[in-house]
Specification:
The chain has 212 residues and is mainly α. The protein is built from twelve helices and no strands.
Length: 212
């Protein structure tokens, strides 16, 4: 997996499956097989593997989440929701699951729900956005836009994390955000409105970056 030899990883995981009889171990190995297929962009095979994992352990939350990612990556955002929500029902304190659910809501332009899930995710794990790996767990927007950056700024402002809020708000301005009345009326940004960095950005926002 670390070398991105996903076909080889699947082969070794399948060999491991033949060497044990524990349903719990089978569930975890099928989930790993699903991750390997997912990383290889074979979402159909990944879904079959995740469903096999769930067959062995219906309370194992990871394959439910990972099923959601296969639909998200196939641009089937609405379908991804039920899998993320089921994963959260099994493991309510998983920041990753809330983050993924929020990202699906964001791509569906359901920004209020997206903000709520991002707030939960960052409250559970302040560093969740910095997590990476080949586990297929964390989904980031492939084409972030002005609304994404604005709402991420809003989330960080609501949590009092001014530096991150300023960084995302600056990106929103660069992507073309111009609605200063909306910004000034937003109660979350009022929480950081007296911070010198915010005042400077609000007074002299960057000009939107135009595509060539």
């Amino acid at each position: 997996m670390a070398r991105k030899n996903y076909e080889g990883a699947v082969d070794y995981y399948q060999r491991a499956l033949r060497l044990q009889n524990s349903p719990t171990d089978s569930a975890r190995l099928w989930n790993k097989i699903g991750i390997a297929y997912q990383q290889d962009n074979n979402y159909s095979a990944a879904r079959k593997a995740y469903k096999r994992s769930i067959h062995f352990d219906q309370k194992f939350s990871d394959p439910w989440n990972n099923l959601g990612t296969t639909y998200f990556l196939s641009n089937k955002f609405k379908q991804s929701l039920k899998y993320y929500e089921h994963a959260i029902a099994l493991e309510p304190k998983s920041a990753l699951f809330h983050l993924n659910l929020g990202t699906s809501f964001s791509r569906m332009k359901k920004y209020d729900q997206a903000v709520k899930e991002y707030q939960v995710a960052l409250t559970l794990d302040p560093n969740v956005l910095a997590q990476h790996g080949y586990g297929g767990s964390v989904i980031q927007p492939q084409h972030p836009d002005v609304d994404y950056f604005y709402n991420m700024a809003k989330v960080f402002a609501s949590l009092g994390r001014t530096d991150e809020a300023i960084r995302y708000l600056r990106r929103a301005f660069e992507e073309g955000f111009k609605n200063l009345k909306r910004l000034d009326a937003d109660p979350d940004f009022r929480k950081i409105s007296k911070d010198p960095s915010y005042v400077a950005l609000r007074k002299s926002p960057p000009v939107g970056i135009k595509e060539d």
